[in-house]
Design brief:
- The complex is a heterodimer of chains A (474) and B (396).
- Chain A is α+β, with helices and mostly antiparallel strands.
- Chain A is globular.
- In chain A, 25% of the residues lie in helices and 29% in strands.
- Chain A has two domains: 3-326, Peroxisomal Thiolase, Chain A, domain 1 (3-Layer(aba) Sandwich), CATH 3.40.47.10; 354-471, no CATH class.
- In chain A, a hairpin with a 2-residue loop joins strand 21 and strand 22 (462-471).
- Chain A contains twelve helices and 22 strands.
- In chain B, 64% of the residues are buried.
- In chain B, helix 2 (84-97) crosses helix 12 and helix 4 (161-180) crosses helix 9 (295-304).
- Helices cover 33% and strands 18% of the residues of chain B.
- Chain B folds into two domains: 8-115 and 218-229, Peroxisomal Thiolase, Chain A, domain 1, CATH 3.40.47.10; 142-211 and 237-393, Peroxisomal Thiolase, Chain A, domain 1, CATH 3.40.47.
- In chain B, strands 3-2-4-7-1-8-11-10-9 form a nine-stranded mixed β-sheet. In chain B, strands 5-6 form a two-stranded antiparallel ribbon.
- Classes of the chains: A alpha+beta (474), B alpha/beta (396).
- Chains A and B meet through helix 11, strand 18, strand 19, strand 20 and strand 21 of A and helix 3, strand 5 and helix 6 of B.
- Strand 18 (400-408) of chain A pairs antiparallel with strand 5 of chain B.
Chain lengths: 474, 396
């Protein structure tokens, strides 16, 4: 039976305390924090990170990759294809972006289940990732956070079987954003709850229960999207859920992460689930998709390394000023350093293997792994000078140590100072690259590092993604 | 292979004041330095039979030399990052040594202050070998690329950051003292150790005064055959060695490249010593102009060039070995730190100082009875470096 085989969670390490926002606007202080994508992260980089984790947990390849997001970096150009190349999936992998609705995630999951059931795919990853833009000084600024989560849908060794599903659509305008809008728009909250969200969710849940002849009491846990904690609690009351059944929406720690929100809640539920448990999982947005999940004995395999709880609290609290500049919400003074030249698309294409999955090469004569910091594939070995005797060698999954570093006050970056390192990889090879997600005073020679896919800068509308090194996350 | 030793002599040199020359263009700087060199050599522009111009950013092709109105002679632009000025001198000297001309001109120029930006312009060409055409190279500044060396040096030799910074500060203080004696230097102020160590950090551990000046300037040399040099002047300076040694990104790609020495420097200087017949550089070199783009590099160069034993530069710095009154004065004119660093001009500017010193014309900076002088550049940085190491002498 089709179900969930693996999960992945990616939460940025940065948290913006809500009281920091309140202080900026002399507003009423609100509890908690929201997760904020780093200055070099976006929906694509976070989705890539969660996809890599989802693959690594089961040591598998996927033959399908669906991205669910409302904040793809390009209006035209597929993000799933970028993620598939970064995660080194085979060329025949079926890629698709599911967009324009917060329900994209459950729509994509449904499509993945259908594909697996029909036999057209074996393992489909659904990665949900969002960085929704909120205008300053508003309720959405307090509510919205950034994050990503992924599930692998397949039929073998599933951790949770999908026993059934039920969907409705609902043409209701509660949150929207046109091509011309910089920020998410919304309307009056009571109207949304009473006419839109609550009736739609109730209708979908009762439709599911009726179709499968179940009652809410048959579920150990109910996991569902809501736009904020108040709305989340309102539905729990409306459905008369037992307190123990309600999955915490995590909004206090990370905020509402858009397409990733319900899926992140699901990973938290799976972290605690026991074999035999039944979970009701519901995504919302222009309608509702409900699923019945039944936990299997395989669940233990993803529980040995807790998927979400160690990541919830984040590592670095940022200031409101950092948040504004990272999000380009305030015009900041340009660097006085000379501008970088525009990037060459033919150059990026030639060096695509290095850029996407950080492929270098290993010399077949002397065995030395090697990679150029500007992506050029070696033709002559840096160690023994043998010509064209190379095999591909992937560096993105290798750990490394910091050989030396430079903290650069002049470097043009949205998060000064720039941190850069000479990284020596376990197993050989060296790369001089930027470091990210660092606490500056903890950067030290010998520090263990791992690689992470990030946005370097934008050049004439092109997102220049590449790899950086970051401190190994525990 | 018998090398360049004593085949070519420098018979005239010129050098502009370095600094923020807002009111002078590339053409003014070239004319200013070249006419000083013509006068020094006792020749006119019509005597020049071939010319090489070195510039990194301030002009494409030898058309850059057009302000001199040299009439239809072979001219070429050369570029080799911070070794560019030295490269122009090498080309001119090789042409004379090859016997294809008797009088050749080497020009180095850079007008950095027209960019409107702070610091040195980065890679500017699509497909550039520094950043790659894909633009994925890390976007750090030049000081950062040398901060790697300082961080590693401190780590390797167990220097506490404050200790290391004070050590490096002595280099800046020395070079500022020398620069204060030089009316052509960009900066002519003395500094104290406290001022250096308390200066704003640019790329930890390097502070503002660990970094060289960004300047405008030009320098020019007239070279001729050694055997006819005395017909131009009684005190020509003879070329003893000219070595260029270029890395192939070993520092960026190989774990055995240690960042506390620069292999390009070590091999470049060893070849230069062999070409010049120098057995013990510490004893035989009278003065050296080395590439102190950042203080840490001058310290590493002491060791790379064999002036100090490996890891022991500290002893010589603290003993004052490299000051004007020391055993081996280094950067007597203020160095890149203080004289300034217009990239394409720097190699020739260094040679200008060595030339004047060897002729005994260095005024208050004059070192005692010099015989052999050395100039050294490092373009790029560790493992992606272009080292030039030239040796000249006042005796044939």
């Amino acid at each position: 039976m089709a179900g969930i085989r693996s999960i992945g969670v990616y939460l940025p390490i940065y948290r913006l305390p809500r009281e920091e926002i309140a202080r900026a606007w002399a507003g009423r202080s609100m509890a908690g924090t929201k997760a904020v994508a780093g200055y070099d992260e976006d929906a694509v980089t976070m989705a890539a990170a969660t996809t890599l984790e989802c693959l690594a947990r089961r040591g598998d390849k996927a033959d399908g990759l669906f991205l669910a997001t409302t904040t793809a970096p390009y209006k035209e150009k597929q993000s799933a294809a970028i993620i598939a190349s970064v995660t080194d999936l085979p060329e025949a992998c079926h890629t698709a972006d599911f967009t324009d609705s917060l329900r994209s995630t459950t729509i994509a999951i449904k499509a993945a289940i259908e594909a697996v059931k029909a036999g057209s795919a074996k393992n489909v990853i659904v990665a949900a990732s969002d960085c929704r833009p909120a205008a300053a000084k508003g309720a959405l600024e307090l509510a919205l956070g950034d994050g990503a989560a992924a599930v692998m849908i397949g039929s073998e060794d599933v951790i949770a079987e999908v026993e059934g599903s039920y969907s409705i659509f609902n043409d209701f305008t509660d949150y929207w954003r046109t091509a011309d809008d910089t920020f998410v728009r919304t309307t009056e909250g009571r109207f949304i709850d009473e006419v839109g969200y609550l009736p739609a969710m109730q209708s979908a849940v009762s439709g599911l229960l009726k179709k499968y002849k179940l009652a809410l009491a048959d579920f150990t846990r109910v996991v569902y999207y809501a736009s904020d904690t108040r709305q989340h609690a309102a539905l729990a009351r409306r459905l008369k859920l037992d307190k123990a059944q309600v999955q915490d929406p995590l909004y206090n720690e990370i905020g509402n992460t858009g397409t990733a929100a319900a899926l992140l809640m699901l990973t938290a539920a799976l972290e605690k689930a026991r074999p035999g448990d039944r979970i009701l999982f519901a995504g919302y947005g222009d309608g509702c998709d409900c699923f019945i999940l039944r936990i299997t004995d395989e669940i233990k395999k993803v529980q040995n390394k807790p998927p979400i709880s160690p990541k919830l609290s984040g590592k670095i609290n940022i200031s409101y000023g950092q948040y504004l500049t990272w999000r380009n919400l305030i015009p900041a003074e340009a660097s006085t350093l000379p501008e970088r030249p525009p990037i060459s698309l033919p150059g990026r294409w030639r060096e695509r293997r290095a850029i996407a999955a950080l492929y270098g090469a290993r010399c077949k004569k002397c065995g030395t792994p090697q990679i150029s910091q500007i992506g050029q594939a070696p033709r002559v070995c840096v160690q023994c000078q043998a010509k064209d005797e190379f095999e591909p060698y992937k560096f993105s999954d290798k750990k490394g140590k910091l050989f030396s570093y430079a903290i650069d006050q002049l470097q043009p970056t949205l998060n000064p100072p720039g941190v850069n390192g000479v990284v020596d990889f376990e197993g050989g090879g060296r790369l001089i690259c930027e470091l990210t997600d660092c606490e500056i005073d903890k950067v030290a020679v010998g520090m263990p590092l791992e690689m992470t896919f990030r946005k370097m800068f934008s050049s004439r509308g092109i997102n220049n993604y590449f790899w950086k090194a970051k401190p190994v996350s525990e | 292979m018998d090398g360049i030793k004593d085949k070519v002599a420098i018979v005239g040199m010129g050098c502009t004041k370095f600094g923020e020359r807002w009111d002078k263009g590339v053409e003014d700087l070239i004319v200013e330095a070249a006419y000083e060199a013509f006068e020094d050599a006792g020749i006119g522009p019509k005597d020049v039979q071939a010319a090489w111009i070195g510039t990194v950013f301030s002009g494409l092709s030898a058309i850059t030399l057009s302000p001199l109105q040299l009439q239809y002679i072979p001219m070429t632009r050369v570029e080799n990052m911070c070794a560019t000025g030295s490269e122009a001198l090498r080309a001119a000297s090789y042409a004379v040594a090859a016997g294809v001309c008797d009088i050749a001109l080497a020009v180095g120029v850079e007008k950095l202050k027209d960019s409107g930006a702070t610091g040195v312009k980065g890679p500017s060409v699509v497909g550039d070998n520094q950043d790659g055409s894909s633009g994925i190279g890390p976007g750090y500044s030049a000081p950062a690329s040398f901060a790697y060396m300082a961080t590693r040096y401190f780590h390797e030799y167990n220097l506490k950051p404050e200790e290391g910074k004070r050590l490096l500060a002595q280099i800046a203080v020395k070079n500022h003292h020398n620069g204060s004696l030089n009316p052509k230097a960009h900066f002519q102020n003395e500094l104290t150790i406290e001022q250096v160590v308390n200066a704003p950090i640019i790329a930890w551990p390097l502070g503002l005064f660990d970094c060289c000046g960004v300047s405008d300037g030009a320098a020019v040399a007239v070279v001729t055959r050694a055997d006819i040099a005395k017909s131009f002047r009684k005190d020509p300076i003879y070329i003893k060695a000219m070595q260029i040694n270029v890395g192939a990104r070993q520092g960026a790609m190989r774990q055995d490249y240690d960042f506390v020495h620069i292999e390009e420097n070590v091999l470049g200087s060893r070849k230069a010593y062999a070409e010049a017949g120098v057995k013990n550089p510490r004893q035989e070199i009278s003065l050296a102009e080395v590439h102190d783009c950042f203080s840490i590099h001058e310290m590493i160069v002491y060791e790379d060039l064999g002036f100090s034993p490996r890891g022991r530069a500290r002893d010589d710095i603290e003993a004052g070995t490299f000051t004007l009154k020391g055993d081996l004065p280094v950067n007597t004119d203020g160095g890149l730190k203080c004289f300034g660093h217009p990239l394409g001009a720097s190699g020739l500017r260094m040679m200008y100082e060595v030339y004047k010193q060897l002729q005994g014309k260095a005024g208050p900076r004059q070192v005692k009875n010099p015989r052999l002088g050395l100039t050294h550049n490092l373009g790029g940085n560790a493992g992606t470096g272009i080292c030039s190491c030239f040796i000249v002498g006042n005796e044939k």
